């Protein structure tokens, strides 16, 4: 890019920024947006408004996102050639090997805690699931050496767990349909919302957090493990 072109580009960006800043400063306020935090607390019992939106207001959309992970894991598992391979050609030092084994339960517990507390604090099923997947991937990468593959959970068991989690998510949705006439309904089902801020609160949201966490964790694990096959 020539100097003239660069100068024109920078000048255009500056002018555009000035126009936007001016419009924001002088434009009249035509709307008074609602604060949704009190509304989500009242409607769902969840302190974390993000979890309330994900697993109550737009829970059906969240089910679609979980389906995307399921389909991705399935396609990757089927399309990847079946020859065995590993990430490493030589075994790592004992410090790394034992260090991963020692860290594995702590990382897993952290992921489960993030899932379980997703309705009362930042986090939730997707975040906790990624943390759990990280622990299993660490183990597989470190211990899969010289064409030999090692897993925390066997690939066949991973697929079974993922399918079970998906079925459980749909089952919670059908529970809402049966009790309240609405798929994935929460408060309308009559399930107690509990006291906001407590672990046992927010109706079906904690269940969906845990289920989606298992689904995401296992699904991401399947995707990464499938890439070990070359």
Quote the beta fraction: under 5%
Strand-and-helix sequence, N→C? HHHHHHHH
* Number of distinct helices: 8
Main β sheet profile: none
The secondary-structure class comes to mainly alpha
What ranges have pLDDT less than 50 throughout 5 or more consecutive residues?
A: none
Mean pLDDT over all positions: 84
Question: What gap, in angstroms, lies between the N and C termini?
Answer: 41 Å
Q: How many individual domains?
A: 1
| Proportion of helical residues | 55-70%
Overall shape: it is extended
E-strand count: 0
Radius of gyration, whole Å: 23 Å
Short description:
This protein has one domain (3-226). Helices cover 67% and strands 0% of the residues.
Model description:
The chain has 230 residues and is mainly α. It has one domain (3-226). The chain is 67% helix and 0% strand. It is built from 8 helices and no strands. The protein has helices spanning 3-26, 36-44, 49-57, 59-79, 94-116, 125-143, 155-180, 205-226. Helix 2 packs across helix 3. It is extended, with a radius of gyration of 23 Å. It starts with a helix and ends with a helix. The mean pLDDT is 84.
How are the SSEs ordered, and which strands pair?
Layout: H1 3-26, H2 36-44, H3 49-57, H4 59-79, H5 94-116, H6 125-143, H7 155-180, H8 205-226
Question: What distinguishing features does this structure have?
Answer:
230 residues; 67% helix; 0% strand; mainly alpha
């Amino acid at each position: 890019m020539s100097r003239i072109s660069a100068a024109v580009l920078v000048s255009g960006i500056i002018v555009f920024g000035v126009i936007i800043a001016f419009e924001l400063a002088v434009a009249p306020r035509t709307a008074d947006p609602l604060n949704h935090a009190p509304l989500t607390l009242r409607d769902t019992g969840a302190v974390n408004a993000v979890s309330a939106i994900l697993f109550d207001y737009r829970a059906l959309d969240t089910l679609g996102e979980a389906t995307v992970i399921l389909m991705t894991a399935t396609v990757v598992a089927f399309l990847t050639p079946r020859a065995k391979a590993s990430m490493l050609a030589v075994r790592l030092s004992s410090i790394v090997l034992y260090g991963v084994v020692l860290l594995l339960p702590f990382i897993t517990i952290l992921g489960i805690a993030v899932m379980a507390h997703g309705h009362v604090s930042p986090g939730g099923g997707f975040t906790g699931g990624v943390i759990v997947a990280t622990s299993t991937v660490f183990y597989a990468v470190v211990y899969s050496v010289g064409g030999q593959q090692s897993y925390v959970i066997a690939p066949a068991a991973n697929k079974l767990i993922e399918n079970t989690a998906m079925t459980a998510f749909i089952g919670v949705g059908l529970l809402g349909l049966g009790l309240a006439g609405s798929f994935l309904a929460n408060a309308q089902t009559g399930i107690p919302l509990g006291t906001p801020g407590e672990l046992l609160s927010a109706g079906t949201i904690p269940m969906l957090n845990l289920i989606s966490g298992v689904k995401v964790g296992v699904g991401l694990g399947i995707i990464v493990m499938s890439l070990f096959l070359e």
